[in-house]
Write a structure and sequence with these properties.
By secondary structure, this protein is an all-beta fold. It contains 1 helix and 9 strands. The protein is elongated and about 80 Å long.
Protein backbone atom coordinates (compact mmCIF):
# COMPACT_ATOMS: atom_id res chain seq x y z
CA UNK A 1 0.00 0.00 0.00
CA UNK A 2 2.53 2.60 -1.25
CA UNK A 3 0.53 5.78 -0.47
CA UNK A 4 1.32 5.44 3.25
CA UNK A 5 5.04 5.92 2.63
CA UNK A 6 4.54 9.73 2.68
CA UNK A 7 3.73 9.35 6.40
CA UNK A 8 6.64 6.91 6.96
CA UNK A 9 4.04 4.14 7.15
CA UNK A 10 4.56 0.59 5.91
CA UNK A 11 1.29 -1.31 5.49
CA UNK A 12 0.95 -4.94 4.40
CA UNK A 13 -2.51 -6.45 3.95
CA UNK A 14 -3.18 -10.19 4.15
CA UNK A 15 -6.44 -11.50 2.69
CA UNK A 16 -7.92 -14.91 3.40
CA UNK A 17 -10.99 -16.15 1.54
CA UNK A 18 -13.71 -17.98 3.46
CA UNK A 19 -13.88 -21.47 1.97
CA UNK A 20 -17.55 -21.92 2.83
CA UNK A 21 -18.45 -18.52 1.36
CA UNK A 22 -16.40 -17.74 -1.79
CA UNK A 23 -17.87 -14.21 -1.98
CA UNK A 24 -16.43 -13.30 1.43
CA UNK A 25 -12.95 -12.84 2.85
CA UNK A 26 -11.18 -11.38 5.86
CA UNK A 27 -8.25 -8.97 5.69
CA UNK A 28 -5.69 -8.20 8.39
CA UNK A 29 -3.38 -5.20 7.92
CA UNK A 30 -0.38 -4.82 10.25
CA UNK A 31 1.20 -1.36 10.07
CA UNK A 32 4.67 -0.10 10.97
CA UNK A 33 5.64 3.59 11.18
CA UNK A 34 9.32 4.43 11.21
CA UNK A 35 11.10 7.49 9.80
CA UNK A 36 10.72 11.26 9.35
CA UNK A 37 7.37 12.81 10.15
CA UNK A 38 5.08 13.38 7.16
CA UNK A 39 2.99 16.57 6.86
CA UNK A 40 0.94 16.34 3.65
CA UNK A 41 -1.80 18.55 5.12
CA UNK A 42 0.41 21.42 6.30
CA UNK A 43 0.66 24.50 4.07
CA UNK A 44 3.98 25.03 2.31
CA UNK A 45 4.03 28.75 3.05
CA UNK A 46 4.34 30.58 6.34
CA UNK A 47 3.24 34.06 7.36
CA UNK A 48 5.95 36.58 8.14
CA UNK A 49 5.67 38.17 11.56
CA UNK A 50 7.72 40.81 13.34
CA UNK A 51 7.02 39.34 16.76
CA UNK A 52 8.81 36.27 18.11
CA UNK A 53 6.66 33.14 18.34
CA UNK A 54 5.57 32.10 21.82
CA UNK A 55 5.94 28.45 20.86
CA UNK A 56 9.29 27.51 19.30
CA UNK A 57 9.04 25.38 16.15
CA UNK A 58 9.65 21.67 16.44
CA UNK A 59 12.69 20.32 14.60
CA UNK A 60 13.95 16.88 13.52
CA UNK A 61 10.49 15.36 13.90
CA UNK A 62 10.41 11.56 13.62
CA UNK A 63 7.73 8.96 14.13
CA UNK A 64 7.72 5.36 15.17
CA UNK A 65 4.66 3.29 15.90
CA UNK A 66 2.43 0.44 14.90
CA UNK A 67 -1.16 -0.28 14.00
CA UNK A 68 -3.58 -3.01 13.06
CA UNK A 69 -6.68 -3.01 10.87
CA UNK A 70 -9.13 -5.86 10.37
CA UNK A 71 -11.92 -5.94 7.81
CA UNK A 72 -14.66 -8.21 6.50
CA UNK A 73 -14.86 -8.05 2.71
CA UNK A 74 -17.84 -9.00 0.55
CA UNK A 75 -17.46 -9.39 -3.23
CA UNK A 76 -20.56 -8.28 -5.13
CA UNK A 77 -19.77 -10.03 -8.41
CA UNK A 78 -16.60 -12.12 -7.99
CA UNK A 79 -14.59 -12.89 -11.09
CA UNK A 80 -13.80 -16.51 -11.89
CA UNK A 81 -10.69 -15.70 -13.94
CA UNK A 82 -8.26 -15.55 -11.01
CA UNK A 83 -7.38 -18.06 -8.30
CA UNK A 84 -7.77 -15.33 -5.64
CA UNK A 85 -10.79 -13.12 -4.79
CA UNK A 86 -11.32 -10.41 -7.39
CA UNK A 87 -14.00 -8.04 -8.60
CA UNK A 88 -16.06 -5.27 -6.98
CA UNK A 89 -16.23 -5.46 -3.18
CA UNK A 90 -17.43 -3.72 -0.03
CA UNK A 91 -15.38 -4.00 3.18
CA UNK A 92 -15.73 -2.70 6.73
CA UNK A 93 -13.92 -2.99 10.03
CA UNK A 94 -12.00 -1.31 12.89
CA UNK A 95 -8.42 -0.12 13.28
CA UNK A 96 -6.05 0.88 16.08
CA UNK A 97 -2.79 2.87 15.81
CA UNK A 98 -0.23 4.07 18.35
CA UNK A 99 2.40 6.67 17.40
CA UNK A 100 5.41 7.93 19.31
CA UNK A 101 6.67 11.23 17.95
CA UNK A 102 10.17 12.42 18.82
CA UNK A 103 11.27 15.99 18.14
CA UNK A 104 13.70 18.73 19.19
CA UNK A 105 12.54 22.12 20.42
CA UNK A 106 14.53 25.16 21.53
CA UNK A 107 13.98 26.13 25.15
CA UNK A 108 15.62 28.30 27.76
CA UNK A 109 17.77 26.12 29.99
CA UNK A 110 19.81 26.99 33.07
CA UNK A 111 23.50 26.12 32.79
CA UNK A 112 26.01 26.56 35.59
CA UNK A 113 29.42 27.64 34.34
CA UNK A 114 32.80 26.74 35.96
CA UNK A 115 32.95 30.22 37.48
CA UNK A 116 29.87 29.35 39.58
CA UNK A 117 27.49 31.69 37.76
CA UNK A 118 24.21 30.44 36.27
CA UNK A 119 23.32 31.40 32.71
CA UNK A 120 20.23 30.95 30.56
CA UNK A 121 20.94 29.29 27.21
CA UNK A 122 18.50 28.80 24.34
CA UNK A 123 19.25 25.20 23.41
CA UNK A 124 17.65 22.29 21.59
CA UNK A 125 16.03 19.76 23.90
CA UNK A 126 14.62 16.39 22.88
CA UNK A 127 10.94 15.67 23.54
CA UNK A 128 8.58 12.79 22.83
CA UNK A 129 4.83 12.44 22.62
CA UNK A 130 2.53 9.43 22.32
CA UNK A 131 -0.70 9.49 20.33
CA UNK A 132 -3.27 6.69 20.15
CA UNK A 133 -5.86 6.60 17.39
CA UNK A 134 -8.76 4.23 16.81
CA UNK A 135 -11.86 4.03 14.64
CA UNK A 136 -13.59 2.17 11.83
CA UNK A 137 -14.26 2.58 8.12
CA UNK A 138 -16.33 1.30 5.21
CA UNK A 139 -14.67 0.96 1.82
CA UNK A 140 -15.62 0.14 -1.76
CA UNK A 141 -12.96 -1.23 -4.07
CA UNK A 142 -12.14 -3.23 -7.14
CA UNK A 143 -9.45 -5.91 -7.18
CA UNK A 144 -8.34 -7.33 -10.53
CA UNK A 145 -5.39 -9.20 -12.05
CA UNK A 146 -2.63 -6.78 -13.05
CA UNK A 147 -1.03 -9.30 -15.37
CA UNK A 148 -1.99 -12.93 -16.05
CA UNK A 149 -0.81 -14.90 -13.04
CA UNK A 150 -0.58 -14.01 -9.36
CA UNK A 151 -0.15 -10.19 -9.35
CA UNK A 152 -3.22 -8.02 -8.64
CA UNK A 153 -4.13 -4.34 -8.51
CA UNK A 154 -6.70 -2.98 -6.06
CA UNK A 155 -8.27 0.51 -6.12
CA UNK A 156 -10.38 1.54 -3.13
CA UNK A 157 -12.12 4.52 -1.51
CA UNK A 158 -14.35 4.92 1.51
CA UNK A 159 -15.39 6.83 4.58
CA UNK A 160 -14.48 6.37 8.23
CA UNK A 161 -14.71 7.87 11.69
CA UNK A 162 -11.89 7.91 14.23
CA UNK A 163 -10.81 9.33 17.57
CA UNK A 164 -7.34 10.22 18.86
CA UNK A 165 -5.91 10.81 22.33
CA UNK A 166 -2.69 12.22 23.70
CA UNK A 167 -1.42 12.96 27.20
CA UNK A 168 -0.61 16.52 26.05
CA UNK A 169 -3.29 18.80 24.58
CA UNK A 170 -0.65 20.90 22.75
CA UNK A 171 0.76 17.78 21.10
CA UNK A 172 -2.73 16.65 20.15
CA UNK A 173 -3.48 19.92 18.34
CA UNK A 174 0.01 20.22 16.82
CA UNK A 175 -0.44 16.98 14.87
CA UNK A 176 -4.06 17.47 13.84
CA UNK A 177 -3.60 19.80 10.86
CA UNK A 178 -5.70 17.70 8.47
CA UNK A 179 -7.30 14.34 7.79
CA UNK A 180 -3.95 12.70 7.06
CA UNK A 181 -2.20 13.87 10.22
CA UNK A 182 -1.34 11.53 13.09
CA UNK A 183 -3.71 12.96 15.71
CA UNK A 184 -6.66 13.59 13.38
CA UNK A 185 -10.09 12.87 14.80
CA UNK A 186 -13.49 12.88 13.11
CA UNK A 187 -14.53 11.88 9.60
CA UNK A 188 -11.87 10.85 7.10
CA UNK A 189 -11.82 9.37 3.61
CA UNK A 190 -9.42 6.45 3.07
CA UNK A 191 -8.44 5.71 -0.49
CA UNK A 192 -5.59 4.55 -2.63
CA UNK A 193 -4.12 1.62 -4.46
CA UNK A 194 -2.77 -1.78 -3.42
CA UNK A 195 -0.46 -4.11 -5.31
CA UNK A 196 -0.92 -7.75 -4.32
CA UNK A 197 0.68 -11.14 -4.88
CA UNK A 198 -1.27 -14.39 -4.49
CA UNK A 199 0.68 -16.81 -2.33
CA UNK A 200 -1.50 -19.81 -3.17
Amino acid sequence: MPQHLVMSGYWVEVEQRRNQHPRQSFTLTPQLYLGPLGHPDRPRYYAVTYWPSIEAPRENEKVRGFGLQGQHRFYLNPSQKASYPSGLYVSYGPHLQIFQIVYDKREWHEVQKPNGLTYQEYVLKKHSATISRYGASVQVGYQAPLVPGRVSLDFYAGVGLRQSNSHDSKTDSQYRTGRSDYAHRGWYFPGGVKVGVALR
